[in-house]
Design brief:
heterodimer; A: 401 residues; mainly alpha; Cytochrome-c3 Hydrogenase, chain B; 2 domains; 16 helices; 8 strands; globular; B: 163 residues; alpha/beta; Beta Polymerase, domain 2; 5-stranded mixed β-sheet; 4 helices; 7 strands; 21% helix; 28% strand
């Protein structure tokens, strides 16, 4: 938030160049990102991102909450895939507790995380195409996203801020009709992807705008901390779901799309193929869904069922204690990383043995990916800046936290 | 499943590539190790942290800086602990390097020359904890306005009342 700063972030180095301010209120910055562009004619000489406009101090707020109360905060970090953030946080706390999660809960978590990846990628595709001037794709993408939001509403009662995962499992078993709805969506979805591709992949204007734009080499991507589809589009075959599996991902078969080109076009193709792979994983999770409980057997951590509370004294006591004073977590620190739609989402949690976390840090993929933006844009045209921003798929909520 | 007790004995862990590389380079650099919940933490002396990262990167033990953050253990001294989450794409493993810093002298060498990714992470720590990084190209606040006073993620930062 340098508008209050005594010294300017960026000064024109020469007389030929000028400073162009882009954002924070700019439709193609996907939130409140401010970019300072030093331009020479139409060419970008330097670019400096300025962030912090959405900073709400979530990490500080976490320190005043019980462990379970942090889950709703994690929704607000990356609002396009709240369940992926919930998943990462609950996995981190479960690791701190040394807790075993029943397979049914793990499978449903994977299924929902993949559906979230699809809905997040749909927002990316729609807005990215909108930035590039292809308006109708947006409407097609949001048509399918609407179906997904209805599915999230079925399990959690909320379309966006779901908070459905609990430390130790799920809030409830999914309601009647949920699996049918997921199945219906997954059956019809591949032809919808074909539809998007028929609008874009062979479109000459689209290819011209994307091919060879905002190139990023594999070495630069690794040095800059880029992760996710942007890293894979630069030719690095790395996916945490496959390479360091969590939440039972080792039981699913899927391909990791990789491209060698490193430009906006490669990132587009990687994400489109990820849509198909995510659908594959969700389908496997649906078909192989094991029976059993959706909560871990840990009465001091997991809230008891409503029925038990009416019949068992202990259940009532545990419920009262968990709600009023939380549960204690053994002292220690963990770093749990998962593959969010944007890249490596990591939660670094430190416990001091009390009922509230001592420190929760979110390593958000967009925050690191944003650093590569300057590298992608410098020396290129202003019009390509919009393509580059769209291609790294940033969410300002998780950058500023 | 109860938690396995943490291993802090360096003799038991010295076969790990990261620890072996650091020990063969400089025994004084390693201040302590901890294997806890399937994660390895290595405490590195403050003056060696940058060189230790260069060494681990050049020997191919790790190649990626995933995350860099800080935690405030106030009122304990040294109060700050920096945590560098390093990742090896080849070995598919995370290694955490840790550096302890005292409150009066919260300064450490910047990692931006090793991994440019550290740029934003270090600015965030500077902004929210007040830890300074020597050699950082642009060490200024990133989340808060430049006119902000104090560092909110410190434990002694007031959370209620007037500042």
């Amino acid at each position: 938030m340098a508008h209050l700063s005594p010294t300017p972030i960026l000064d024109a180095a020469e007389d030929r160049t000028m400073i162009l301010n882009m954002g924070p209120q700019h439709p193609s910055t996907h939130g409140v990102l401010r970019l300072l562009l030093e331009i020479d004619g139409e060419q970008v000489v330097r670019m400096v991102p300025d962030i912090g406009f959405l900073h709400t101090g979530i990490e500080k707020t976490c320190e005043a909450k019980f462990y379970q109360q942090v889950v709703p905060l994690t929704d607000r970090i990356d609002y396009l895939c709240p369940m992926v953030n919930n998943l990462c946080y609950v996995l981190a706390v479960e690791k701190l507790l040394g807790m075993e999660i029943p397979p049914r809960a793990q499978w449903i978590r994977v299924m929902l995380a993949e559906l979230q990846r699809i809905s997040s990628h749909l927002v990316w595709l729609g807005t990215h195409a909108l930035d590039m001037g292809a308006m109708s794709v947006f409407l097609y993408c949001f048509r399918e996203r609407e179906e997904l939001l209805k599915i999230y509403e079925m399990v959690s009662g909320q379309r966006m801020m779901t908070s459905y995962f609990r430390i130790g499992g799920l809030a409830l078993d999914p309601p009647l009709g949920f699996f049918e709805a997921v199945k219906r969506f997954l059956t019809t979805f591949p032809e919808k992807i074909d539809e998007y591709e028929s609008l874009l992949t062979g479109n000459f204007i689209w290819i011209d705008r994307l091919k060879g734009v905002a190139h990023l080499s594999a070495e630069d991507a690794i040095a800059m901390g880029v992760t996710g589809p942007s890293l894979r589009a630069s030719g690095v075959d790395w996916d945490l779901r496959r390479d360091i599996p969590y939440s039972g991902y080792q039981n699913f078969k899927f391909k990791v799309p990789v491209s060698q080109d490193g430009d906006v076009w490669a990132r587009y193709l990687c994400r489109i193929q990820e849509l198909r792979q995510s659908r594959e994983i969700a389908k496997q999770a649906l078909e192989g869904l094991p029976e059993g409980p959706t909560k871990a057997d840990a009465p001091k951590v997991v809230l008891p069922d409503r029925e038990k509370m009416k019949t068992e004294m202990e259940a009532l006591i545990y419920h009262f204690k968990i709600v009023t004073e939380g549960f204690t977590v053994p002292a220690g620190e963990v770093y749990q990383a998962i593959e969010s739609p944007r890249g490596e989402m990591g939660y670094y949690a430190v416990s001091d043995g009390t009922g509230k976390p001592m420190r929760v840090h979110m390593r958000s993929p967009s925050y690191a990916n944003l650093q590569a933006l300057s590298k992608m844009c410098e020396g290129r045209l202003i019009a390509d800046v919009v393509a580059a921003i769209g291609s790294i798929d940033i969410v300002l909520g998780e950058i500023d936290r | 499943m109860p938690l396995a007790p943490a291993i802090t004995d360096i003799e038991q862990l010295k076969d790990h590539p990261a620890i072996a590389a650091l020990l063969s380079w400089n025994k004084d650099a390693v201040r302590g190790v901890r294997w806890d919940r399937d994660e390895l933490s290595i405490w590195v002396a403050r003056e060696f942290i940058r060189e230790a990262c260069v060494l681990l990167r050049d020997r191919g033990v790790v190649n990626f800086l995933s995350d860099l953050t800080c935690a405030d253990y106030y009122p304990r001294d040294p109060r700050f602990e920096l945590a560098y989450q390093l990742l090896s794409h080849k070995r598919k493993e995370f290694v955490r390097l840790k550096v302890s810093l005292t409150g009066e002298d919260a300064v450490v060498e910047s990692m931006t020359s090793v991994w440019p990714a550290a740029n934003f992470f270090e600015r965030e720590i500077f902004d929210l904890f007040g830890v300074r990084f020597l050699g950082h190209p642009n060490l200024r606040r990133i989340m808060l306005p430049e006119s902000w006073e104090g560092h909110p993620l410190r434990k002694d930062y007031p959370v209620e009342g007037y500042r």
